[in-house]
Design a protein that fits this description.
Layout lengths: L1 E5 L10 E5 L9 E11 L1 H7 L15 E8 L10 E4 L2 E3 L5 H4 L10 E2 L11 E5 L3 E3 L6 H4 L5 H12 L6 E5 L5 H10 L3 E5 L3 H9 L4 E3 L9 E6 L4 H9 L1 E9 L12 H4 L5 E4 L5 H13 L6 E5 L3 H10 L5 E5 L1
Parallel strand pairs: 10-11, 10-13, 11-12, 13-14, 14-15, 16-17
Antiparallel strand pairs: 1-2, 3-4, 3-8, 3-17, 4-5, 5-9, 6-7
Length: 330
Amino acid sequence: MKAAVLTSTGKVADRPLRIEEIPKPELGAVQVLLRVRACAVCRTDLHIVEGELPPLRKSLIPGHQIVGEIIQGATPELTLGTRVGVSWIGGTDGRCWYCRNNHENLCDSPTFTGYAVNGGYAEFAAARSDFVFPLPPTLDDVHAAPLLCAGIIGFRSLRVAGVEPGDRVGLFGFGASAHLAIDVLHAWRCEVFVSTRGASHRKLAESMGAKWVGSEADKPPVDLDRAITFAPSGDVVVLALSSLRKGGVVAINAIHLDRIPEFDYDRLLWGERQIRSVANMTRSDARDFLKLAAEISLQPKVTIFALDDANEALAAVKSDSIDGATVIVP
């Protein structure tokens, strides 16, 4: 099969992914083999490829937002030809305290798709059968792929922030995840305030019905009930915190953050404001979000790249040159 393989981390400008012909995956216990139909690109892939997350394998196929068709390893519940999605959490140990107490996203020994095991920048991929999700027929391949991490983790971020219908919610950054979260917020009748860099991102937020849109340094004109930060920047966290009412919550949707600068506790955090991190997702998050996405006809804005152009797809994510989501189609 053809695959984009990482053998040494490096800047995407240096094209660290090598397009190679390699053997198809060999199935382990309780795995299915998927013919990959689409794989969306996540900023986490960028952190992996450039080495901001430490390598876990000598050779790796990235990609964890996979839409695929089961061609081997079928079960009575997952028959041959079933179209499924695969996300960042590719497995958990099922034994640790977190797994036994409904917090599998915090598992002590998780398996990460496209990081601990090979992912979807390839023509075929293997996945644990209990960590794939049948996809609603109303979600086509290319538009379903970005939902499988950007969408699910954005949805979990809203849950972690405690968003209630009618809340004033700030989205700080407006990339692949935020542009999906805004439609969920509108379905919940929330007012959405967007602070983001890049004129095209601001234009997209305006076109999607944000009540207010500003640059990355602009503070929303009202106190927010909840805020979610999507940019991997500690400065953005402080800006979001400064925008909260008393008792408000900031949820940080980032697996990697540069740093959080010193800030004034008395002015910004006191008053029972909260900062919470968002870590991974649960299978319940995935099922609930995909059901909601089908109900509200969620349609991400996508730009398609061929598998041969995987390095260019990552470069587009790094430069924020593409609005919405980036999807690789083998």
